[in-house]
From TrEMBL:
EC number: 1.14.19.21
Protein name: cholesterol 7-desaturase
UniProt superkingdom: Eukaryota
Pfam families with a match to the protein in the record: KshA_C, Rieske
UniProt xrefs under Gene3D superfamilies: Naphthalene 1,2-dioxygenase Alpha Subunit, Chain A, domain 1, Rieske [2Fe-2S] iron-sulphur domain
Record's catalysed reaction(s): cholesterol + NADPH + O2 + H(+) = 7-dehydrocholesterol + NADP(+) + 2 H2O; cholesterol + NADH + O2 + H(+) = 7-dehydrocholesterol + NAD(+) + 2 H2O
UniProt keyword Disulfide bond, yes or no: no
Organism per entry: Pristionchus mayeri
Length: 435
């Protein structure tokens, strides 16, 4: 009797101990796995500023102010080449819609101009020159959105309509409002949860529209992350990459594990353990002359064996000089789009924004965006240091680079601003509504 009581107590103690250990184990697993789960499912927001990528000053690397000074020096001694005009005609992305809240003024730099992007109280977006015609204050610094869609200057309180550009109120003036009291308005459109400005060097109205992506607007495809890169090159260099087929099997051959830094990637290793195998072609659209298509098939291999879920077929539709809609199809896993935008902020300074909307699993979308950024950043190393070559030495299998240039030249006109040897522009970029 006594023995069985002891046995029972021992059994209960053992069960209690096992349960406690099990609970601890579950807690440890949750603590370890939960952050990983959060990381994998949180949309990517990868931002690389000018100087983060693409500059190398030998070993040991420069740091702090020395690095900044050397980047300035590189800019001075950079050989630019015989550049095409610097601001092609077309629509350019200036913001993602969620970045602009009602009553907000968002500073925008595009075509070398300082502009102010405004969201009215009722939600419409407007873009105006930032400098007040009265005494020159900058609306981006202290300006306010008032009277629904107007901007009030912080200096003397004048109020301008961001829709028409005209001055609607001078609070301390009881005479008439001078005729010249107006700000320049730029044509904008909000589409696919992005805001675009139209630029045309001859002041022509928009000649084509940005296609609507219904699956973004009806919520079938949801936001899956973004990347943003500042790149120091001519705007044309970035889309031209799509027609440069030969570089895919070289700069982009090695898989993501070797990283984005071309200085550290061993380009002589033709058989890295993880490789990207590419097959692509580029052609202008026969229907819409401002459009072209790059079809790309890609698969990742590990020591020659295909990695599951790594193959993709992409159609990258270029729409004008600065927009690409990259349609993704991963079969059963889902579909989606990456909206690629390249916007010239200065003659040799581009902002590249990639945003994904899809019904792909969040972890997979993140993996895709990170891999794409990794490959894109290798190009950034090249773009931010190269010169533009007007007559490249093309050989067989280089890809249709010449054809792409002829196609892209439709976005330039005789009045397109050119970069002069002294660093100034042949003519300023003007709003198409200023003519
Ligand atoms: S400078 Fe803008 S109101 Fe005077
Ligand atoms: Fe590339």
């Amino acid at each position: 009797m006594e023995n069985s009581a002891i046995f029972l107590l021992q059994s209960l103690a053992a069960i209690h101990l096992t349960m406690t250990l099990f609970m601890y184990l579950v807690a440890v697993v949750i603590i370890l796995i939960y952050p990983l789960y959060l990381y994998l499912t949180k949309p990517l927001n990868r931002i690389k500023r000018h100087g983060d990528l693409g500059y190398f000053f030998g070993t040991p690397e420069l740091a702090g102010k020395h690095r900044d000074q050397q980047i300035e020096r590189l800019k001075r001694i950079r050989m630019k080449g015989d550049l095409p005009p610097v601001y092609p005609n077309g629509w350019y992305c200036i913001a993602e819609s969620p970045q602009l809240a009602p009553k907000q003024i968002l500073p925008v730099v595009v075509f070398g101009e300082q502009l102010s992007l405004i969201r009215s109280e009722d939600g419409s977006a407007h873009l105006i020159d930032s400098y007040c015609p009265h005494l020159g204050a900058n609306f981006n610094v202290g300006g306010r959105v008032v009277d629904n869609n107007c901007v009030q200057c912080p200096f003397h309180g004048w109020v301008f309509s961001a829709e028409s550009g005209s001055c609607t109120r001078i609070p301390y003036n009881d005479g008439t409002i001078p005729e010249q009291a107006r700000v320049t308005v730029w044509p904008v459109v909000e589409r696919n949860k992005h805001i675009y400005v139209w630029f045309d060097a001859d002041g022509s109205a928009p000649e084509w529209e940005i296609p609507v992506i219904e699956d973004i607007l009806n919520g079938q495809w949801t936001y899956k992350g973004r990347t943003e890169h500042e790149v120091a090159c001519h705007v044309q260099e970035i889309p031209e990459n799509g027609a440069d087929i030969a570089h895919l099997g070289y700069l982009h051959l090695a898989g993501a594990p070797v990283g984005n830094d071309v200085i550290r990637i061993d380009l002589s290793d033709r058989f890295p353990s993880i490789t990207h195998q590419w097959d692509g072609n580029w052609n202008p659209s026969t229907k819409d002359k401002h459009m072209s298509k790059m079809h790309l098939e890609q698969v990742m291999k590990f020591h020659g064996f295909e990695i599951p879920l790594s193959s993709s077929k992409l159609d990258a539709i270029q729409i004008g000089p600065g927009i690409v809609h990259m349609h993704l199809d991963f079969g059963n896993l889902g579909k989606g789009i990456v909206l690629h935008h390249v916007t010239p902020e200065e003659p040799l300074f581009q902002r590249a924004r990639f945003v994904m909307y899809s019904n792909l699993p969040r972890w997979f979308a993140k993996f895709f965006m990170l891999s794409e950024a990794n490959q894109f950043e290798r190009d950034v190393y090249v773009w931010s240091n190269k010169r533009y070559v007007k007559n490249p030495l093309l050989v067989k299998n280089d890809g249709p680079i010449g054809k792409h240039r002829r196609w892209y030249s439709q976005f330039y006109s005789d009045s397109s601003p050119r970069l002069l040897p002294d660093g100034s522009l042949s003519n300023r970029a003007k709003s198409a509504l200023e003519w």
